[in-house]
Specification:
This protein is an alpha/beta fold. Helix content is 44%, strand content 15%. InterPro entries: AB_hydrolase_fold.
């Protein structure tokens, strides 16, 4: 499924009695990973945790060339130049998320792995300036592996985020036993992006489902970040 909105009718009845509804996020958007997406564990979790959950497919895959933004597909069309292929995939996914935000603007965003990398670009490119939680973001790791691209250079991405003072709206979650995207990748990110918060999950794997979903920890992280962001906005 390319696009979906789920409305949780029972959300307000349960949550608004707990505290001022202004400080409770009503909607979330999920920016999916390479091969994950609609109705995956994190998507289902957001459906159950927020009144509204937005999702749009980025037509993304590592190997499936039928997906428009597939890395392999772009590798073939860019004469097997990895950095150019990565740039085309990133640009394609970023444009989809940009168009989605013109229609549906959530209170908070969750990005996972590849989607976490797209989330960082959304902040850097000025597409999103609200609260965003990134699970094991893959952007720095990708650029380190394939090389900096003409459009996307890591230091410039970080500089733009820091110039806008948007690191305070970013929380990164990463497990120390992630075998897909090394934990050190997020340690470096959190050091380079000013005021960005890193939450370390000891022995956590790449998916993190057993560590932040089954115990409902992710919801608390997202609620806390949104509350902090909203209080800052209200006190301006």
């Amino acid at each position: 499924m390319d696009k979906q909105l789920v409305v949780n009718q029972e959300f307000n009845q349960v949550e608004e009695s707990k505290e001022d509804s202004q400080l409770i996020p009503q909607s979330a958007s999920y920016v999916h990973g390479l091969e994950s997406g609609f109705n995956g564990s994190k998507h289902r979790y957001l459906q159950n945790s927020f009144q509204k959950c937005y999702y749009v497919s980025m037509n993304m895959s590592l190997w499936n060339i039928q997906k428009k933004n597939s890395l392999l597909r772009n590798l073939c069309t860019n004469f097997f130049r990895p950095s150019r292929a990565a740039e085309e995939s990133l640009k394609g996914c970023l444009k989809i998320q940009e168009d989605e935000l013109k229609v549906n603007k959530p209170d908070i965003i969750l990005g996972s792995s590849w989607g976490g990398g797209i989330g960082l670009l959304m902040v850097s490119e000025g597409i999103w300036d609200g609260p965003i939680v990134l699970c094991c973001p893959a952007l720095k790791y990708l650029l380190d592996k394939v090389g900096q691209t003409p459009k996307y250079k890591w230091n410039e991405i970080v500089d733009r985020i820091n110039q806008k003072n948007l690191g305070k709206n970013i929380v990164i979650i990463h497990g120390t036993k992630d075998k897909t995207i090394p934990y050190q990748n997020s340690v470096d990110c959190s050091k380079q992006i000013k005021d960005c918060q890193l939450i370390t999950i000891e022995n956590g794997d790449h998916k993190l489902n057993d560590y932040i979903i089954k115990n409902d920890r992710l919801k608390g992280i997202m609620y806390d970040l949104y509350k902090k962001y909203k209080l800052e906005q209200l006190n301006k």
